[in-house]
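Mods, move this if it's the wrong board.
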Amino acid sequence: MRATFLVLCTTCLFATAAAAQQPGRPPQLTPEEQAARAAAREAEMKAPRPIDAVESLWIEELTWMEIRDAIQAGNTTALILTGGVESNGPHLASGKHNYSNRLMGPSVAAALGDALIAPLVTLEPGNPSRPVLLGNTGPMVSQDTYIAWLTDMGDSLRGMGFTEVYFLGDSGGNGRGMQAAADALNERYNGDPTRFHHVPEFYNHHLVRQYIQETLGIPEQMEYTASQGSDGIHEELSIASIMSVIDPTAIRFDQRVKAGRASINGVSLEPLSETQELGRKLIAFRTRITVDAIQALRDGATRPASR
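Not the wrong board. Structure tokens:
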């Protein structure tokens, strides 16, 4: 027994020594070495850019130095835009909300004047394990995953130095998750140093339909609160117009013209230039509603009434 015990002790000692000498394992630093490394890292973080910065409102298009300098210059607001992938009939790309957000994000950020845009959240919440009919919907994540995803994104933006984070959703099913993420982060940090808000006014499609028909006088055959118009498909003039600005292929414009289907809910999409001009007007209209709501949050005032 004693011999066995000695063998076991010797084996443990050799294993411990070998582990301490494994190649690739970082050496133990002295307190002085740790302080020197921290100072070097701090100096690196404060180093000036070696090249000129580019102009972009998208965080993913900026270098870490450009992001750092933008925040230090006062761009302390971050926008998290959520979209989705869904069935939209025979004409529209399934990522219609994501196409829209690629235009709405820069428009809102530019109007605020102090905002940068986080990478788009392109999937929406649902039941990913539920069988669905072909074409009924697109890929999705669970509600729990969605809330965790948005919460982690907001937390990360806080760590980067942003003091205001706004969740803006272009798809109706996204609101619950965005509000839950904002509530969780506000409860966790109590505004130190960042406040988080869901802005439901960004999802303003019923107001856009009213604006098209009453203010612009375009007789689209669609109820303001409906999900489809007279054509009986999940497409409408507003979203088609906005998508046409970024990419006419996303609404299959040329293919529709060829097939004699270049219209929606009783309104022609031809000529393309007029549809794109309408899209730009709608982007500006939606931007004003969203910025007014954000400004009301900043002022602690009552949010503006629906228009």
